[in-house]
UniProtKB/TrEMBL annotation:
Keywords: DNA-binding. This is TetR family transcriptional regulator. GO terms for molecular function: DNA-binding transcription factor activity; transcription cis-regulatory region binding. It comes from Nocardioides luteus. Residues 8-67 form the HTH tetR-type domain. The keyword DNA-binding applies. InterPro entries: Homeodomain-like_sf, HTH-type_TetR-like_transc_reg, HTH_TetR, TetR_C_25. Residues 30-49 bind DNA. Pfam families: TetR_C_25 (PF17933), TetR_N (PF00440). It comes from the Bacteria.
Length: 223
C-alpha cells in the first residue's frame, strides 16, 4: 500500500501495516501484531480506530481506492499511447492489495461479500472510463460484464493458489509474480483478440434473452 503522502500520519501507518498483516495472516491477525508492525502500542491502534473491525473497514476502503486509482491510471496511460509494462515491473508494490483481496475472498461472510460487491461496482466505473476513452468496447449490460470480469479474475487467482500453493504463503510478491507468469499473456490475448471468429453464438443467444435494463445498456461497437 502507498500512503497518500510521503510522510504518512500515524493513522495511515497503522492502516498500511494492517493491510499487509491481514494480507499475510488473514483477518484473524491480532491488534498486537499490527501494532508491532506499525511501531506503536496496541492502545494507540484502538485510540485511532476504536476496534479491529473499524480498522478492517478502513483497510477495505483504502485497498478499494488504491485498486480504482491503479485501474484508472492504466486506462489514462493507454489512452495517451503510453506503455503500462512498468506496472508489471512494479508488481511487488501491488502484492499487499492482491493478498488482501484474496483474504477477503477466503474470509467470506457479509464483510467479504460486501468487499467483493464494492469491487464489482468500482469495475463498472473504470470500465465505463475505458469505454469513454475509446479503449474498451461497450456492452449491452455493463454491470453484468463487470461482475463476470471481476469474479472470473478472482476465481482464477483462487484456483491458482489452491492448486499451486506458494512455498511461503506470506511471500505475497511470489504470488503476484507466479500469477503474471502463468496468466497475463493468455488473459491479454483473449481480451485484445477475442476468441470466436464469428458472433453467431451471440446473435442466436440474444433471440432468447430479454433486453437488459435501459440504464445499464450501451450501444455495442460494430465489428
Amino acid at each position: 500500500m502507498r500512503s497518500a503522502s510521503a510522510d504518512p500520519t500515524t493513522r495511515e501507518r497503522i492502516r498500511d501495516a494492517a493491510v499487509l498483516r491481514f494480507a499475510r495472516d488473514g483477518f484473524g491477525a491480532s491488534v498486537r501484531s499490527i501494532a508491532t508492525d506499525a511501531g506503536v502500542s496496541p492502545a494507540l491502534v484502538i485510540h485511532h480506530f476504536g476496534s479491529k473491525d473499524e480498522l478492517h473497514a478502513e483497510c477495505d476502503e483504502a485497498v478499494l481506492a488504491e485498486i480504482r486509482k491503479a485501474k484508472n491510471e492504466s486506462i489514462d496511460e493507454l489512452a495517451a499511447g503510453q506503455s503500462i509494462l512498468h506496472r508489471f515491473a512494479a508488481a511487488d508494490e501491488y502484492a499487499p492489495m492482491l493478498g488482501y483481496v484474496l483474504r477477503s475472498l477466503q474470509n467470506g461472510g457479509p464483510v467479504g461479500q460486501t468487499f467483493i460487491e464494492q469491487m464489482i461496482e468500482d469495475a463498472v466505473g473504470y470500465t465505463k472510463h475505458g469505454v469513454e476513452a475509446g479503449l474498451v468496447k461497450p456492452s449491452r449490460d455493463e454491470p453484468a460484464r463487470a461482475r463476470y470480469l471481476v469474479l472470473s479474475a478472482l476465481g482464477m487467482l483462487m484456483l491458482e493458489i489452491t492448486l499451486r500453493p506458494p512455498e511461503d504463503p506470506a511471500d505475497l510478491g511470489a504470488i503476484v509474480r507466479d500469477f503474471l507468469t502463468t496468466s497475463y499473456f493468455p488473459m491479454i490475448e483473449l481480451y485484445t483478440q477475442g476468441f470466436f471468429t464469428t458472433r453467431r453464438m451471440l446473435d442466436e443467444y440474444l433471440l432468447y434473452v430479454p433486453d437488459p435494463p435501459q440504464d445499464t445498456a450501451t450501444e455495442p461497437a460494430s465489428d
